Amino acid sequence: MRWYQCAVAMAAVVLCVGWSALAERGGEGVSLTVLGNVQDGGYPHIGCQREDCRNLFLRPAGHQVVCLGVIDSVADRQFLFEATPDAARQANQLAALPGAHAGMPDGIFLTHAHWGHYTGLGLLGREAMGAQGVGVYAMPRLRAFLEGNGPWSQLVELGNIALSTLKPDEPVAATSQLTVTPFRVPHRDEFSETVGFHIAGPNRSALFIPDIDKWTKWDRNLREMVSAVDLAFLDGTFYDGTELGHRDMSEVPHPFIVESLALMEDWTPAERDKVYFIHLNHTNALLQPDSEESKNVAKSGCHVARQGDRYPL
Question: Could you say which of 3.40.50.150, 3.30.413.10, 3.40.50.300, 3.60.15.10 is the CATH number of the domain covering 27-305?
């Protein structure tokens, strides 16, 4: 039996307890924070000549590449989910949150080997921090990629990072009250497999799926997966198929927001309320909270993940 089948029954128990009580308890010291919601290329995006990009180049607004931070203040441990090009700021922001300790995270969980999700590891190396033994959790192909290709292999050789191998659907006890379970998702796996994560605290749990080709290509039922958790951070890269006028969007497949909303149309309001779209391309109008597209998502009962949002687990 997979974790999400067991979790459906647990979700019913949590609903009986009530969200307000959980918020007051602070998730027994476990919390999740959105440290970035943008696609790999960032925002503003290199080469972007639109007015919003030009304004952001002149007056940066601090948009960061997709990343979650999880803190267990009881265990005095904290973790990043993804090592992005913005990892220096994101690690510092995580350390500044209530319940966090100063310094580096105790571990970094990686979803796959696309540029914006792992290249922040370089900041741990000789040319930058020169860290010692930062735990990095990766699937087998991704681990082999890091060990077998420079400059990442030097991080391993110098002991800047300590790799741990993840296995699909096998939970990792990050702390005594925080478990992380990877699961495979279909994506462009040029250099590694791709996973999402189920992140479970003592009271609540979350899905993190920043990248997937299409929900219809997955061998799992998205509604069942979302029903089994309290929060679902899902791939929202593109709002629709018109955003990349100069590129073939089949080369960078993702579920369009309009496709996801259509898929969720017959979901219950409680199920849609769990959904937070993340990993937004610089062309995606959801980056603008007052856009019609953002209003459409709000009307659907779903949400857009915003940098700085924090949730008790």
Answer: 3.60.15.10
Whether residue 151 is predicted with pLDDT greater than 70 in this model: the reply is yes
**DSSP E strand stretches across the chain:** 30-36, 67-72, 77-81, 107-109, 134-138, 161-165, 172-175, 178-184, 195-200, 205-209, 231-235, 275-278, 303-304, 310-312
Tokens of 185: 């998702």
For 50, other C-beta atoms within 10 Å of its C-beta total 12
Helix (H, G, I), strand (E, B) or coil at 200: strand
Q: What is the pTM of this model?
A: 0.89
Instruction: State residue 308 phi and psi, 5-degree precision.
Output: 100, -15
CA–CA separation, 283 and 87 (whole Å)? 22
Structural domain spans, the chain: 27-305
Half-sphere exposure (Cβ direction) of 279: Cα atoms closer than 13 Å: 25
